[in-house]
Amino acid sequence: QVQLVESGGGLVQPGGSLRLSCVASGSIFSRYAMGWYRQALGKQRELVANITPGRSTNYADSVKGRFTISRDNVKNTVYLQMNSLKPEDTAVYYCKGGWDSRAWGQGTQVTVSS
User: Fold this and answer.
1) 2 pLDDT more than 90
2) What is the dihedral of CA 111, 8, 17, 78, to 10 degrees?
3) Rounded to an integer, what distance in angstroms lies between the CA atom of residue 38 and that of residue 50?
4) Cα–Cα distance between 91 and 85 in angstroms, integer?
5) What angle do CA 40, 43, 48 make, to 5 degrees?
6) Angle at the Cα of 34 (from 76 to 71), degrees rounded to 5?
7) Residue 111, beta-bridge partner list
8) What is the CB neighbour count within 10 angstroms for residue 46?
9) Is residue 94 within 8 Å of residue 38, measured between CB atoms?
10) Three-state SS sequence of the chain
11) 35 to each of 16, 32, 55, 113, how far by Cα in Å?
């Protein structure tokens, strides 16, 4: 069973930056799309960005121009570079593997506050 482990969350001031990482165990990573989702308190989980095996990307309108998703198929890692962070970006961020509907990481908290 492939596991996903996120890291890189934390507390940051508005306008700041964070980079999230998600490492996948196993050898199937490079063949599947990967995604980042987030869930704010009291809200539904929503797609933030995803990336195909060929590195085509898609972003939620709310993060376009501020966030960048990328992947390293040698390191089995997907990244989310988050710049110009806003308080409304505060949420638990989850990594999602495209090979299984149940392929979620444990989540990492991102808090944007002064």
Assistant:
1) no
2) -120
3) 12
4) 12
5) 60
6) 45
7) 11
8) 12
9) yes
10) CCCEEEECCEEECCCCCEEEEEEECCCCHHHCCEEEEEECCCCCCEEEEEECCCCCEEECCCCCCCEEEEEECCCCEEEEEECCCCHHHCEEEEEEECCCCCCECCCEEEEECC
11) 22, 10, 12, 25
Give the separation between CA 109 and CA 71, rounded to whole angstroms.
21
Q: CB within 8 A of 6, min separation 6: which ones?
A: 20, 21, 22, 93, 94, 95, 105, 106, 107, 108
9-90-43 Cα angle (round to 5)? 120
Distance of alpha carbon 48 from alpha carbon 111, whole angstroms = 16
Give per-residue pLDDT as tens, 76-107: 999 999 999 999 999 999 999 999 989 999 99
Instruction: Give the pLDDT of residue 44.
Output: 97
End-to-end CA distance of the chain: 40
